[in-house]
TrEMBL record:
NCBIfam families: nth. PANTHER family: A/G-SPECIFIC ADENINE GLYCOSYLASE/ENDONUCLEASE III, ENDONUCLEASE III. Residues 1-57, 265-312 are annotated as: Disordered. DNA repair enzyme that has both DNA N-glycosylase activity and AP-lyase activity. The DNA N-glycosylase activity releases various damaged pyrimidines from DNA by cleaving the N-glycosidic bond, leaving an AP (apurinic/apyrimidinic) site. The AP-lyase activity cleaves the phosphodiester bond 3' to the AP site by a beta-elimination, leaving a 3'-terminal unsaturated sugar and a product with a terminal 5'-phosphate. GO terms for molecular function: 4 iron, 4 sulfur cluster binding; class I DNA-(apurinic or apyrimidinic site) endonuclease activity; DNA binding; DNA N-glycosylase activity; metal ion binding. It comes from Streptomyces vinaceus. This is Endonuclease III. It catalyses: 2'-deoxyribonucleotide-(2'-deoxyribose 5'-phosphate)-2'-deoxyribonucleotide-DNA = a 3'-end 2'-deoxyribonucleotide-(2,3-dehydro-2,3-deoxyribose 5'-phosphate)-DNA + a 5'-end 5'-phospho-2'-deoxyribonucleoside-DNA + H(+). It is an enzyme of class 4 (lyase). The keyword DNA-binding applies.
Length: 312
């Protein structure tokens, strides 16, 4: 029995957005009128005299940020091209230490050569390595792909399992990868703690934890389970487009009034606007096959044009 393409749940549901989760043709959801946004408080910039924030106040602020991000990024989605759980699993493993764009530029040839776990399990290692070389660390990644494909073939009948307990036993698969697959291929809510997510939730004072599993646990306690997957996408989108690691665009940030780290980056609106990336900066996105409601440009195929910014 082989994997069938899986569409995730509709926006605002326990999974991720409906149309955006697949690289194959899906109709864009109907647009609904946006509610008028209430006024935000003044930015909480450095040096502002404030009493310590209570836990309850932090939770309310965190949920307010999530609501604002939902309006800013109604099209938030996984930025890896995939058509079924196996493709998403493989793409997520390849995404370590590289951009989703580079993975998306590499996987068309990969899945043309090895469309199923059975095909990839029988791959010649050197040939597999050569295809995935552009993603970096290709020898280690090839070992993981061969190992997980063999495990899927031998232990799961060629199907990607839909339980985190099974996924994390596969070679090269940790909780982050498992939550990506569960949330976006199976509609099972989960928090995906990647570099962007961890950086922003600490910047926003939602947690002080550094360990990804502890971050996941603390953030899960703040939000309803139904929000976990979409929250992950919104936070990552914001981190890649506006709230960058080295030079956040504070002056162009719509949630600046809710951010305790306002002022760490460029606060001049015109200078900050020049720091925006991907669709916010008028540049191509990371997906070669973006969802129908994505407002930006598709990414170029491998070798056809310079890469879009990495979204540091």
């Amino acid at each position: 029995m082989s994997n069938k393409p899986v569409r995730a749940q509709a926006k605002g549901s326990a999974g991720v957005t409906g149309g955006p989760n697949s690289a194959v043709g899906e109709q864009a959801p109907e647009k609904t009128p946006r509610k008028p946004r209430t006024a935000l408080p003044s930015p909480q910039g450095k040096g502002s005299a404030k009493k310590p924030e209570s836990h309850l106040a932090m939770v309310r602020r965190a949920r307010r940020i999530n609501r604002e991000l939902a309006e800013i990024y109604p099209y938030a989605h996984p930025e890896l091209d995939f058509r079924n759980p196996f493709e998403l699993l493989v793409a997520t493993v390849l995404s370590a230490q590289t951009t989703d764009l580079r993975v998306n530029q590499t996987t068309p040839a990969l899945f043309a050569a090895y469309p199923t776990p059975e095909d990839m399990a029988a791959a010649v290692p050197e040939e597999l390595e050569e295809i995935i070389r552009p993603t970096g660390f290709f020898r280690a990644k090839a070992r993981s792909l061969l190992g997980l494909s063999q495990a899927l073939r031998d232990d799961f009948g060629g199907n990607v399992p839909g339980r985190i307990e099974d996924l994390v036993k596969l070679p090269g698969v940790g909780r982050k990868t498992a939550n990506v697959v569960l949330g976006n291929a199976f509609g099972v809510p989960g928090i995906t703690v990647d570099t962007h997510f961890g950086r922003l939730v600490r910047r926003w004072k939602w947690t002080e934890q550094e360990d990804p599993e502890k971050v996941e646990a603390e953030i899960c306690a703040i939000f309803p389970k139904s929000e976990w997957t979409m929250l992950s996408h919104r936070v990552v989108f914001h981190g890649r487009r506006i709230c960058h690691s080295r030079k956040p665009a504070c002056g162009a940030c719509p949630i600046a009034p809710l951010c305790p780290a306002y002022g760490e980056g460029e606060t001049d609106p015109e200078k900050a606007k020049k720091l925006l990336k991907y669709e916010k900066g008028g540049q191509p996105g990371q997906r070669l096959s973006p969802p129908p409601d994505y407002p930006g440009l598709p990414a170029p195929p491998l070798g056809s044009a310079p890469e879009a910014p990495a979204g540091s």
